[in-house]
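User: Sequence for Fluoride-specific ion channel below. Tokens please.
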Amino acid sequence: MVNVVGCFALGYVLYAVRLGTVSEKTRVFTATGFVSSFTTYSTFAVDVFVSRPGVAVVYIAASYVSGFAAVAVGSGIAIYRTEGTA
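Assistant: Structure tokens for Fluoride-specific ion channel:
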């Protein structure tokens, strides 16, 4: 779940920078600093390693699908907020 929240935050920040509503310095701090320390790929890898094979496959698929969905939602909100203020 933490990785999904991190994906959402990353999607939002990257699109907000692209749209000019967030500065490049904020992107570096948020994406490289906060989000990268907030999410941990190593925990994901250990969870997969200690799971039964069937559970691991479902966990991997669910993690990637929900992560990509969270990026899409975060970027969509950034776009919506920018268009709403224009």
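Residues 53-85 form the longest helix (33 residues).
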